[in-house]
Design goal:
six-stranded mixed sheet; mainly beta
């Protein structure tokens, strides 16, 4: 499976720490993220699998990307939100 452009662009960046995976088509649900994962560092998920992360415990912005750290210690780069084609950006707010 080929990588989407949004994933390829994010993978070029050195964030300064290990990235567990790159997510696209992401939604935020109940303090977790749901999205399509690529380059899972831990080898749990195949490229293109839809996953739900464990609870998000910290967020930060690096190089214009939202990095979400989960309760289990994973760090995911949000490369593309599901709603980026015109729906409400309020769903992107993570508390």
């Amino acid at each position: 499976m080929g990588y989407p452009r949004s994933i390829l662009d994010a993978k070029k960046i050195d964030f300064g720490f290990v990235i567990t995976g790159y997510l696209c088509c992401v939604t935020h649900k109940n303090r977790s993220l749901v999205g399509v994962v690529f380059s899972d560092q831990r080898g749990r998920f195949r490229d293109g699998a839809t996953i739900r992360t464990s609870l998000i415990c910290a967020v930060q912005i690096h190089h214009g990307y939202l990095i979400c750290e989960t309760f289990s210690g994973s760090r995911y780069v949000v490369c593309h939100w599901q709603d980026e084609n015109g729906t409400s950006p309020e769903s992107r707010i993570i508390h």
